[in-house]
Amino acid sequence: MYVSKSSETPKYYDPEIETMDREQLEELQLKRLKWQVKRCYEFSEFYRERFDNIGLDPEDIKSLDDITKIPPVTKEELRQEQIAHPPFGRYVVAPQKDWRELHPSTGTTGVPVNTIWTEHDVENITQWTVRTMWNCGVRPGDIVQNGFSYGLWVAGMSCHYAAKAMGCFVLPIGASMAERQVDYLISPGSTVLLSTPSFALYIAERMSQRGIRPKDIPLKIGMHGGEAGAEVPPTRHKIETRLGIDAYDYFGLAEIGPTCASECEEKAGIHWVEDHLLVEIINPETKKRCNPGEVGVLVLTHLTKEATPMLRYWTNDLARLTTEKCGCGRTHARCEGGILGRADDMIIYKGENFYPAQVEKVIRSFDELGDEFRIRITTDEKTGIDVITVVAEYKTKEIDNEEFKNKVKRAFREELQVTPGLELVEFGTLERTMFKAKRVEDQRAKAS
Asked: What's the CATH number where 392 sits?
């Protein structure tokens, strides 16, 4: 860790790496990429078969651009590999004697995909997680209330390790017990909250119900990941005003690293740990790299992971990338606006495409509405046409009228280019979540 000679808190955790010249950073990436590709080919039948099938040799990777010669790997391919070669597939590169921890994906979209950490992986992930937390202003001595899930799902563990390594006091409560979360914000008085955006809003709701005001607690920082929301302006505003904090976007995924990108004080996009990861944005149709600023699918490659490295992992998350130096002085690439949505979450309605995060932006821009919402998809029995209805909660019965509904529908039209139906229900009707919120309820199978 960088220690300032002055009494001021250091701005960067590792200034040599975080402010490294892009040319030097890319030289480091290439060196590590060549090492990773060679060992994957030598020690993994899974990767060796993929290379041999297209006639690719590890020595063909001579530049960072050459990584595009390697075919992307999808989660479904990893699932099928595990089924064919249980329990962990053949993409494990490190020998079993070096294995230390097992961390599967959440399994929210199918069978969990197993990943393994060696001791060196644990150390690397801990250190880069410290850096991502430092980006958001977390410092030694903070009381970190860890509301990410613990156990086999990995974000809670990595943040726990990092907070300890940084010299923080950790409250490992996990994604549960909303009332206890509020209790700990009061005593011992957490200064940092880690959670999904939905859970943060739920905690704020319970605080309000107990008559606890933001000024009554010492909380100052929120790091929110696991779902879209923290970079949706109305959602960020609600979290910040209701908890009295600065709210930052936080991103990770089990197959790559539970916590591998976060915002800084500029709130100008999530910074990647590019000394450990190679980041690409790929056009999902052409499979070509997008130009800076263009939206495409996020594809990630491990540069230092030992046990289960991913070469060009197709995340299915949509993002845009810039390598322009941030106002904070960091040089690592950023995804401006964070993760914009998931390709498989895209909803096609009346010829237009939109994402749940856009619906969230509209719903949470109205103070008259609650924070929870659902997007219900059904089929009209007579016409066979899909029908989309947004279900939201009203705070007072008086707003359940056509005039207010039309106001919301106009906002939908402006944001989505289409106008879904709107159903308002009593406040508290929709289930609150302490984990990843499931916004889309596809009832078309039932309707048919």
From this structure: 3.30.300.30
